[in-house]
Amino acid sequence: MKRRFLVLAAILLFPIAAAAQVVEQPQVVTLDQVTSGMMLLKTNVPGVFVPAPAVATDVKIQVRGLILRGEVTQRFRNPQATCAEAVYAFPLPEDAAVDRLRMTIGQRVIEGEIQERKQAEQTYEQAKSEGKKASLLSQERPNLFTVSIANIGSGEEVVVSIDYQQNIDYRDSVFRLRFPMTIGPRYIPGVEKPVVPVGVGWSVDTDQVPDASRVTPPVNRPGSGRENQLRLTVDLDAGFSLKRVDSTYHKVDTTIVSGSHYRVALHGGDIPADRDFELVWQPDLGNEPKSALFTESIPSAKSGPGESYALVMLMPPAVKTGVRLPKESIFIVDTSGSMMGTSINEAKAALQLALDRLSPQDRFNVIEFNSVTNVLFNQARPASADNVAAAKKWVSALQATGGTEMMGALQAGLVNQAASEDLVRQVIFMTDGQVGNENELFAFIRSNLKTSRLFTVGIGAAPNSNFLRNAARFGRGTFTYIGDVNEVQAKMTTLFEKLESPVLTNVELRFDDPTAEVWPQRLPDLYGGEPVIVAARLTKPNGRIILSGAVGKEEWHDVHTMSADSALHGEGSGIGRLWARRKIEALNDSVEATAENSDVKQKIIALALEHHLVTPFTSLVAVDVTPSGVPLEKCETRAVPVNLPAGWGGFEGSLPKTATPAPLLLLCGGLLIGLAAMLAIRS
Amino acid sequence: MRVRFLMIGLLSLGGAGLFGNGVYIYAKARLAQFLLQRAWTKTLRGEKDVKPWKWADTWPVAKIEFPEQHQRFIVLSGASGRTMAFGPGHVDGTADPDETGNCVISAHRDTQFAVLQQVQLGDEIVMQTRHGKTIHYRVRAMRVVRSRDVSILANSNGRRLTLITCYPFDAIRPGGDLRYAVMAAPAPIRPDLRSQVSDLSHTLSHQAGLGGG
């Protein structure tokens, strides 16, 4: 008995075993075993079913010009015999302003309230202990949110709707909408913290990622029959006639409502949510907008002048490409375990293309990293035919394995290498960004960038766009996504054209209106084909805007009149929220934001409460007034698994086959010889 | 009569062929470990990815020792069938023997990892990494899992060692759906094993020319 207890204790205390318990075994049932109402899915085996997936998602996106409004509806159903609390981590676009939460129980709709995060958690816990249904929406990372739903009775369904606002990305004459569908398992560096984990994920909390257990939801194994399903529709009114509307990775059905108004739906309704959705649309040739203006006027409560918000997009005139400047290119490639599968092949193809594109007066180096960092050359070398050939050979032998210790690679790329004078130094970083310590890495990039520029290339079906976008922002470069091997050529060529074209620096945008508050305040350098997009709070929504900058030593400026001359313009709601979201992002960048009760934190909270936004410090909470009649026994907390991104090698498939046919061979061989012997004896 | 002789001849030929094939599998698994020892010594001297023979597509990454069972094996990179014909394979994508995380090694149940049958809770497993570092593990759990249950490959924050082989050990037919997993975590040396372990680390450090643990 004592020994059995020891075994049990060992299994329970062993973190691997604990993780394995969270990743549930698919419970299979036959129809005879069903005792209560339960939605079932067929499996490969006739007559055997699995309980319905815990969450089904419905995404409705509306696009008007540059403004996007999204509604994500999640349906939680508890197939268990006991009451449950569901905890679901899910992704949203990294620049989304999340402003609304609604919980629907039967016919009743409960509107969520914005509260300071700690207070919201208390409100939720209070409701939970009183047996009331409640839901809580918190931001864990700019692109990663968790929703908790308390007291879902056996067989009950609770629907949670989350709304967000975003502006459309416009670059290289293409408008682009991205919706992330799942969260890839992230690498959690650091040393285990000896405390009770704050969340229910597969990782323990570490010194480098103190909330690791909140950002590592368990995963559904492909083929387990429990993949989360998602349906998505886009109502697109671009505002001008289009040459094309395409979904990059999914099959869609597109119908034209009228003129520039399209309706796009994922083909086949529900699909497994295992790779990012991307919709691109391109204006007719020569019709590309050079500017856009969207405004919102909020009348003041106290009969004052009220407030106006504006979202402004300005395209600087194309600069003529001069002489190609020699440059130093440092390529960093992620060869960690999460890149295993199709991702590493995409990265290698992109890297080979990059090496081919070097010219002999350039200098270059290649760095690979997983748990350790390896550099091709000790110092960047000239891109001679020999050096490039050596690099290509080195790259083709790269394999994905091990952890994602990104800091070492950034150190090697940004610090350890002496930049050659008078060369433009560009660091091209290819990764899926699946790490949990983003903030630490951003801080490092900010303080060590110096004259280098960092360009991120996001690889794979569901990369961590929060890391990719912001690393490029702090690195004063750009980001590119490659979600498919077929895209490598086109996307890398566009990136190289940017890298080779002159850069617009010292970009400034000024309004006539002296009271205008513009975010972001410091504008990024602009590479070919990129517009300036800012949000401003104004007192008069018309007047002039002056855009200025420099190309090399040449200064340049451009005057626009707000209103009529924009090809794309309109009144919209939620511009104020976009402005607040950008201001919060900028405030959050400042180092002090993490400190408890800092000035910056208070500013963020005030802004978020005013504009009803979810931030690291504010959450939305919805509480049902009537207790749900669920007995107050302790509810089981269940982490809802997310899907594994498509093409992942690391977690897929099965364990190695570990039996040889030797025993079988020996047995059969022995039998035959025995038979022969018997025949010989009898003769 | 002639037919009978022909049958005896064919049966014994076929039987010898199958039997021989079976013996060959075991012989290969045994002999390979001798060849691997040479490659391992070179690896410890600092050479990278030493192929044990010219056409090999794998190389030694660690050495594991079961002191209680008096067994030791050189672990190869990758856990493909081709690799495991020669020795235990380190499963790609799991933590490297040298790094912190869950390091997973698998081998055939009827060759090297037949030893797992005798491994008990609390037993010592000693791993030597290619940089000559020696890590002492203690068996913390044993489980039978389905082959689709890849959760035991999941990474961990602390150092873990997971050994996988087929289950049950005495099945005749290959290709079963069950796996036997032994999970170990670093542990202080048990006093009653100290003498054996110090013997071992002496041997290891002697081979490596490095200070062992």
Structural commentary:
The complex is a heterodimer of chains A (683) and B (213). By secondary structure, chain A is α+β, with helices and mostly antiparallel strands. Chain A contains twelve helices and 39 strands. In chain A, strands 4, 5, 7, 8, 12, 16, 18, 19 and 20 form a nine-stranded mixed sheet that branches. In chain A, strands 24, 25, 26, 27, 28, 29 and 30 form a seven-stranded mixed sheet that branches. In chain A, strands 9-37-10-11-6-38 form a six-stranded mixed sheet. In chain A, helix 4 runs antiparallel to helix 5 and helix 7 runs parallel beside helix 8. The radius of gyration of chain A is 28 Å and the shape is globular. The termini of chain A are far apart. With 213 residues, chain B is an alpha+beta fold. Chain B has an eight-stranded mixed barrel. In chain B, strand 2 (71-77), helix 2 and strand 3 form a beta-alpha-beta unit. Chains A and B meet through helix 1, helix 2 and helix 12 of A and helix 1, strand 6, strand 7 and strand 8 of B.
Topology:
The complex is a heterodimer of chains A (683) and B (213).
Chain A: H1 2-13, H2 15-22, E1 29-30, E2 40-42, E3 48-51, E4 55-64, E5 67-77, E6 84-91, E7 97-105, E8 108-111, E9 113-116, H3 117-129, E10 132-141, E11 144-152, E12 157-167, E13 169-171, E14 174-179, E15 219-220, E16 229-237, E17 242-247, E18 252-258, E19 261-266, E20 271-272, E21 277-283, E22 291-298, E23 307-314, E24 327-334, H4 342-357, E25 363-369, E26 373-375, E27 381-382, H5 385-396, H6 406-415, E28 424-431, H7 438-448, E29 453-459, H8 465-474, E30 479-482, H9 488-500, E31 504-511, E32 517-519, E33 532-538, E34 544-551, E35 554-561, E36 568-571, H10 575-589, H11 599-611, E37 618-627, E38 636-640, E39 642-643, H12 662-682
Parallel strand pairs in A: 4-16, 6-38, 15-39, 22-36, 24-25, 24-28, 28-29, 29-30
Antiparallel strand pairs in A: 1-3, 2-3, 4-5, 5-12, 6-11, 7-8, 7-12, 9-37, 10-11, 10-37, 13-14, 14-21, 16-19, 16-20, 17-21, 18-19, 22-23, 23-33, 25-26, 25-27, 31-34, 32-33, 34-35
Helix pairs in contact in A: 4-5, 4-9, 6-7, 7-8, 10-11
Chain B: H1 2-44, E1 60-66, E2 71-77, H2 81-84, E3 89-90, E4 102-106, E5 124-129, E6 134-146, E7 160-167, E8 178-186, H3 194-208
Parallel strand pairs in B: 2-3, 4-7
Antiparallel strand pairs in B: 1-2, 1-5, 3-4, 5-6, 6-8, 7-8
